[in-house]
Each structure stands twice: as structure tokens, then as C-alpha cells.
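To close the section, here is one more complete example, presented without commentary so you can practise reading it yourself. The ligand is adenosine-5'-diphosphate.
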Amino acid sequence: MSPLLLEVRDVIAGYRPDLPILHGVSLHVGTAEMVTVIGPNGAGKSTLVKAIAGLVPISAGSVAVEGTEVTNLLTHKLATASIAYVPQTANVFTSLTIDENLKLGASTLSKADAGRRIAKAYEDFPALTQYRGQKAKVLSGGQRQMLAVARALLTEPRLLMLDEPSAGLSPLMVSEVFSRLKTLIATGVSILMVEQNVKAALAISDRTYVLAEGRNRIDGDSAKLAGDTEVAAIYLGAGGRKR
Ligand SMILES: Nc1ncnc2c1ncn2[C@@H]1O[C@H](COP(=O)(O)OP(=O)(O)O)[C@@H](O)[C@H]1O
Ligand SMILES: [Mg+2]
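Output:
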């Protein structure tokens, strides 16, 4: 059993104190583990990753990274807590160049570290190199997702959280982005990913949590859940999408 990198316990959270969206959600992510969160639209998946990232207030429960409680820490402090978060939309600045986007992601680093890690980002994401001086709006959806991931990695997080990285991508780009994420796992980074693409999520991840109406519904090994009729039932239910 790998040590727990992230432990979320009985989290109650929402945008207004009187209106909780998450009603006591728990999950954990081990070192170098890839975990996905799936569930119908409105289940609270985005709210969950935002709560972990400190962007939605948690009124009860706890979030711990390597045993240290980080509940309600502001996002800019998350870098020191080793978590990076790539939101679902608006995750790159389209009016800035690729270089400028990366520099922004490295703004908390020393100049030497920033230079070294940005050079490494271009090495790791060679597709970005030819566009470095161009505005991010020239990039395809998949390339933007790669840029968002490259930028998130500049602070060398232990845990990368992504909200629907496959949204709007062609099947070919989905497999390219996912296989890139898989290589990150090999470097010891852990991933917590929200996905609507249930089939792809179950195929790539180690474990999966199903959320429904702000609660844990089912969880387990992804390969096992892929054959689970209850998982299929949730996606055929109200608000769900069949995949
Ligand atoms: N910024 C917000 N302010 C208030 N309510 C929100 C906000 N964002 C989402 N919600 C509500 O929270 C619930 C869960 O949304 P969300 O976490 O986005 O679900 P999912 O990502 O699973 O589709 C929904 O009822 C949604 O209307
Ligand atoms: Mg969402």
C-alpha cells in the first residue's frame, strides 16, 4: 500500500453556508496513483476539486496532504502544499503567448528555478516549443490542455488535479492527453481527475469514485467498475449522460 498523498474526509462544502453542495464526501489518493471522479452533471465533482484547492469553503471535514491538514488553505499556498489545480475552462490566457503563460505559472519561483523549469517544460511538451512566442489562442484544444498541464507542473506538485481534461477534445487528442498524464504518474506525480468521459476515465485510472448528489456513491478499482451495472445505472439516471 502506497502512502496516502491526499486524504479527504467527510467534507461538507458549498458556495453558500446555508446551501451545502457536498454532503460529507471522502476520498484518498496514494503516491503515483491516478484516481478519477465521475458522476452525473451537477453531482458536485467540480465543487469537490475546488474545495480541495481552497476555492470553495469547507464547513466540516478535512483535507490532508501527506498527513498535514490543508483544509481551506488559499490556492496560492497550495504550491507549498504540493497541489496544483487545472480548472475545466479558462485554464490558459489566450491573449498571452505560450512563453508568457509559462512565466506566469513560474511567478512564485526564483528566476533561476523558473528558467530551468520552463526549459524543462518545453522539453517535456515539445509540441509547445514551436509556438512559444505566439498567443495561446493559436493552440488547439488539446495543445491548450497540454499548456495548462505544463504550467501547473512548474511548481513541481506532488498532486495534479484536473477538471475534465478531455472536454471538447477529439478522441485522438483525448488519448494523447491521457497518455501524457500517464507518463507523469511514472515520474511519481499523483493525479486526481474529474471526467465526463466515463469510458476513457475507467480505462486509464487506477481507481474511480462515483459521486451523485454531493455524496459518495460507489468507488473501487477502475477495471472492476467498468463492468459494474450500478455505475451504468447512474449514468442512465436523471441528469446523467450515457457513455
Ligand atoms: N459558483 C457557483 N455558485 C453556486 N452554485 C454553484 C456554483 N457552481 C456550481 N454550483 C452548483 O453546485 C452543484 C454542483 O455543481 P458542480 O460541482 O459544478 O457539478 P459537476 O462538476 O459534478 O457537474 C450544482 O447544483 C451547481 O448548480
Ligand atoms: Mg464539473
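Once you have examined the C-alpha cells, check your reading against these statements. The first strand starts at residue 4 and ends at 13. Residues 45-46, 88 surround magnesium ion (ligand 2) (CB under 6 Å).
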